[in-house]
Amino acid sequence: MSGTRRKEEGRWAWRLTGFVTLCVYIFMFAPIVATVILSFNASMFGGFPMTGFSLQWYAKLMNNDAVLTAFRTSLWIALVTAVATTAIGVVTAFALVRFEFPGKQALSTLVILPALVPETILGVGLLVLIKAIDQPRTMLLLVLGHILLAVPYVVLIAQARMVGIRRVYEEAALSLGASRFSSFREITLPLLIPAVVGGALLAFTISFDNTSASLFWRPAGVETMPTQILSMLKISISPEINALGTVMILVTVGIPLIGGLILQSLTKLKRRGEPKEEVR
Amino acid sequence: MKQSSLWEHKRVEEDAYLRVRMNNRWTLYDPRLAWMLVAPVLLLLIFFLVLPIAVMAAYTFFTFVTAGVETSALTPANWQEFFTDSYYSGFLLKTLRVGAITALLCGVLGYFPAYFIWATSFRHKWLLLLLLIVPFWISFTIRTFSWINILGEQGVINVALLKMGIINEPLQMLYNEGAVILGLLHFLLPYMILNVYVSLEGIDRTLIAAARSMGCTSAQAFREVTLPLSLPGLAAGLLLCFVLAAGSYVTPQLLGSGRDALFGNLIYDTIMGELNWPMGATLSIVLFVVLGFFAAIYTRYMGMSQIVKGLGG
């Protein structure tokens, strides 16, 4: 008797787990879905009920110069950040995995700190520093700041991949007469490609999304996309913001998904000639 | 980086061989080369992380003259003001409370999905995991303000309840502490779920099978084996959620009223609004030290590795 009761309890526990899981997923996506739906609302006000389907808010968005400028600014910053962070991060991960050097442990802790220290503190700190040495806030500063925020993630991703690549491949190339650079370029980098692409995409979204730190670092008069949204929200909640949100979702979700698909087809193409990688 | 000792032994020989090839001066894995490779990241970390925090610490002793102006005459005034004015300590306590509530709720609500994804026999598990990562790609500001469409006067809940005739006028669900915590929960849950999931994934499943075969019920096996082994991930998630919630700026700004501002908002207003840089620096250092204290307790017992795993390593 008690055996069946216990089994019954187990089943209920599992059902409860499934139910909470479902609720959490709904919780995570309901507001986003509501925003996307509302962006097509014909109503004058930014809220329910839906009064009809309309693209007017998108049309309005396309004529909003402030938004378009902010979008372009963010896009450029994110692109530069993605490229630079990936280059720096991959090289750092290579050094941290392959080499033994004094201070390695301290450096690998230091490098993940920007992900743990609240952005407000990083934001104020850098601002105080440039105030102390009497420098203006520039675009370069903003980009370098974004690189700082993204570098921990790229290093961690590249490190995880790097650990799985055996060093004999590189050393074989070296012993056959390749220079260090060409051994890195011809052997290590191709094996690292998933981490490179993944890291670059993540760095792009981190930069494109960044709000708190950008509020501190942006040069006077420059708005990035998130800070622009924030200042629009301060004035009023217009349905235009829902349309803007939907466009942003398309950009930031679409780019990684497309990137992932490209990556998948690339690895499929390459797999034919490649020796099977050992997982250790 | 784990390598068997046999492998390590072979490596020493190879190293010796390659060292000769690299004409004696630079060994294959020369520390000098390593320093050259990490130089860019090191410079970035020094000039954008270490130095700013050091200068900020010095700034806390500067004298505030008037908005935007300060002198480098050293004074303990800022610290005195911080420690004597209950306005600041009140803010700090409220921030820590909101952070703790958020982290605990994340822990409770996040454990279930993590366990479900780990234990389910559903074939498209990757889809569930992908759905957890997708929110990271969506702008944080967008995700936060989208709650206005749910909770606001014209949001889903109010409009539905009005239509059904349950209420006569819209409920005020926005611009209070509950809404702020809800927004933080929405932003932090994926961190928690992924952290717990990573540590569940590391559990050797044969342990659970062994416990079951020794007569444990599934509940006992969970309590005695699975739960204790997943605690490192849960702890890492709790720390991460707590730190990120306590350091948040955007969520209280968008979903809270003036009274629900957190420490991050106080810092922003002190610097960008009042232009009181020495006080702003003092408050930043306070937040840094307090959160660092919690992180230090955590690493003292758990080490850094779990956090590293949880962040995507």
Automatic annotation (TrEMBL), chain A:
Ranges annotated as spanning the membrane: 12-40, 75-97, 109-133, 139-158, 189-208, 241-263
Principal subcellular localisation of the protein: membrane
Location of the protein in the cell: Cell membrane
A Pfam family assignment: BPD_transp_1
Membrane topology: Multi-pass membrane protein
Coiled coil: none
Record InterPro entries: Bact_Polyamine_Transport (IPR051789), MetI-like (IPR000515), MetI-like_sf (IPR035906)
Designated name of the protein: ABC transporter permease
Organism of derivation: Mesorhizobium humile
